[in-house]
Amino acid sequence: GSSSRARGDKPDALAALQAANEELRAKLTDIQIELQQEKSKVSKLEREKNQEVKQIKEHEQHKSTVVVTELKVKLHEDKMKELQAVREALLRQHEAELLRVIKIKDNEIQRLQTLLNAVRDGGPDKVKTVLLSEAKEEAKRGFEVEKIKMQQEISELKGAKKQVEEALTMVIQADKIKAAEIRSVYHLHQEEITRIKRECEREIRRL
Predict the structure, then answer these.
(1) Do the Cβ atoms of 135 and 158 come closer than 8 Å?
(2) For 125, 130, 155, 198, which has the most beta carbons within 10 A of its beta carbon?
């Protein structure tokens, strides 16, 4: 009876084992499916991440390009402004020099015109008067230049004289101090000599 009961239990155990095996296979299949789904999700997230990183890089590169372009434009504008300022300064300088030359030429033309009119109107005496007047004017301008030069030289000589006087005053003061020291030493020596003489006289009288 027990052997027939054991034979009856064996198919049940085998059936239970097969059922458990099927259940494990089903669970394994579910796990594999779930794993594949997770892998798909991870792949999708990686693709999205890579796409986002790519977009960020492209955006930053675009921003950088825009900034560089703006800097180039600003640098070009600053350079053009600087060139314009230099051009205007040179133009003003050229105009000032041109006006100076024109003024000199106008004065020369006026002088020659005056001389020509004198020759036409009056003869040698009037020409002589005009030339003499021009010579006086030229001499006056030369005198003014020499006067300014002499004033500068006088000012420099006064400065040098003042320095010499200050140095001389310092030397005189130093000599006075030295003379006072010599007199003081002389008096001390005289007093010492007088003292030694008195001591010698006392010693002589004692002897």
Answers:
(1) no
(2) 130
